[in-house]
Design brief:
The protein is mainly alpha-helical. It is 31% helix and 7% strand. It has two domains: 123 residues, Cytochrome C3 (Alpha-Beta Complex), CATH 3.90.10; 76 residues, Cytochrome C3 (Alpha-Beta Complex), CATH 3.90.10.10. It is built from nine helices and five strands. The structure holds heme C (10 copies).
Amino acid sequence: MLAVAALLAVAVFGYVQPGKTQHMPVRILFKNNGGKVIFSHLTHHRDYQIDCAQCHHDRQSAPVTENDSALACGSCHPNEFNEQFVTEHIDSFKDESYCVRCHHVEYSSVNFDHDEHTGFASDCSDCHHGAEIEPEPQKCTNCHQEKPVNGLLSMREAGHESCANCHDDMFDKGLSSCKTCHNSVDMTKYQGDYTSCSDCHDVEVRELVIPRMNAFHDQCLSCHESMGVGPYGPDECNQCHITR
Ligand code: HEC
Ligand code: HEC
Ligand code: HEC
Ligand code: HEC
Ligand code: HEC
Ligand code: HEC
Ligand code: HEC
Ligand code: HEC
Ligand code: HEC
Ligand code: HEC
């Protein structure tokens, strides 16, 4: 009786208690144009002792751990960052904590002290137009809109060009210098702000966030190469890809 009760207790406990690694696949089969790849997922974690977060860098705020689930790499590393990705990607995430992985900074107000600056300039017209355009000094946004209109500079271009008359140096250091003028929104939680990557970055998205095949190849091969284990050399494709 005692033995049966004990076994029953164990069974019930085992049933109620969620498996510690229930979310973790044992093996993963990738079907792709290079030939199928079988990836020994559990072995990599358990036997080769690699932390989940070393491969799954889903969020900065909460790294993937043993009893957590993880996102498919393709949620963030699609084949192409095309229109389809832009419309569909928002639904691939469980909550907004993932968004800031890419939408990582937004600018709010500009850090500009007008009163102080009137003292730095010799005349209001160092920044404002003369009377032929601005009958009297006023907000630039009365004329310069968010986007260029009929050849009239956007507010961004107008602001940058005007500030650069004295602060050329602030634009020399690329993206790292933007924060001298721009205050940033707190992005620990995504709040629906959206500025296109290209508004700040000069390069295409695929150079910032690598596409699918590169994501796999980079991660698998660079770890193997750095540890001197597993397949990574140019002649070792077939140790991962089953081609027949
Ligand atoms: C460590 C294992 C590994 C090695 C070694 C490897 N690959 Fe891959 N390869 C992968 C994985 C994983 C994928 C991604 C599969 C997917 O997209 O689902 C992939 C994807 C591909 C794709 C598919 C791209 C597509 O659009 O579907 C091609 C082509 C490819 N590899 C070629 C190669 C070549 C050529 C080599 C040798 C120089 C090589 N791979 C070496 C693991 C490997
Ligand atoms: C050596 C790298 C590596 C380690 C370590 C690793 N994973 Fe993975 N994991 C992967 C790759 C690669 C995939 C395939 C993702 C895909 O298909 O896009 C994957 C897939 C998954 C998936 C399925 C995701 C999906 O929706 O397709 C889950 C869940 C997961 N891993 C959880 C974990 C957990 C939990 C750990 C730690 C206990 C862990 N992984 C450790 C590389 C790793
Ligand atoms: C939630 C989004 C997200 C997911 C999911 C994700 N990545 Fe990334 N990954 C990024 C971003 C953003 C970058 C570029 C910025 C950076 O390097 O941190 C990146 C960079 C990389 C790089 C470039 C080198 C590096 O580490 O900086 C590799 C390789 C990579 N990812 C592979 C993967 C693989 C493999 C998976 C699945 C196991 C994966 N990523 C899942 C967002 C993601
Ligand atoms: C260093 C550049 C600079 C100088 C010098 C300058 N301004 Fe401005 N001024 C601006 C900018 C940029 C704005 C728009 C700020 C905004 O919209 O928040 C502005 C806005 C204004 C506004 C509209 C304020 C509002 O909130 O409606 C007035 C009025 C104004 N300036 C008057 C002056 C006068 C008068 C002088 C000369 C004594 C002067 N400015 C000198 C750059 C300058
Ligand atoms: C009443 C409308 C109006 C206001 C207000 C205005 N602009 Fe303009 N801005 C113009 C027009 C029109 C042009 C085009 C002038 C031309 O092509 O000669 C222009 C052109 C410019 C240019 C291009 C170079 C130049 O000087 O021609 C800069 C830079 C500029 N504005 C900055 C500003 C700044 C900074 C403010 C606010 C301090 C401001 N503008 C306020 C109408 C305005
Ligand atoms: C007429 C020249 C002139 C123009 C035009 C001008 N500034 Fe300045 N600005 C100065 C001077 C001089 C200082 C004080 C010395 C310094 O820190 O460079 C200053 C200081 C600053 C600082 C503080 C710098 C720091 O390191 O803390 C900020 C921020 C700033 N300006 C923003 C702007 C913005 C935004 C514009 C355009 C709307 C602008 N300035 C246009 C002359 C100018
Ligand atoms: C010298 C000060 C200064 C520097 C440095 C600066 N900006 Fe700006 N920026 C401005 C001003 C002034 C405006 C126009 C005012 C506004 O839109 O509130 C502006 C507007 C913008 C806007 C449009 C914001 C909106 O709300 O529509 C973007 C995007 C932007 N800047 C990006 C950048 C980037 C990226 C960098 C770094 C490469 C940078 N800025 C550096 C002063 C600066
Ligand atoms: C892998 C990086 C990545 C992640 C993670 C990501 N985004 Fe994006 N998102 C992009 C890119 C890239 C674009 C569009 C192109 C651009 O900005 O140049 C975009 C565009 C958008 C747009 C504009 C859509 C349109 O129709 O113009 C919204 C809104 C958006 N994302 C919201 C989100 C939200 C909400 C999340 C999280 C649930 C999220 N994104 C996660 C990369 C990402
Ligand atoms: C409001 C401006 C702004 C926007 C919008 C923006 N970034 Fe950035 N990004 C920055 C700044 C600033 C840095 C830091 C550069 C530095 O410190 O050298 C940066 C750095 C990065 C890096 C690190 C690698 C590098 O090139 O320095 C990646 C990856 C990145 N951004 C991806 C993205 C993606 C993807 C998007 C669009 C979904 C995006 N960013 C939108 C301003 C922006
Ligand atoms: C963080 C390091 C790391 C990453 C990332 C990684 N591996 Fe490995 N891999 C190892 C180690 C360690 C071994 C063990 C080699 C040994 O013991 O000889 C290994 C071995 C292998 C082997 C041969 C033995 C086996 O377990 O099948 C294959 C095939 C392999 N990895 C495929 C992959 C693929 C595919 C990926 C990407 C999806 C990947 N690995 C990502 C560290 C890594």
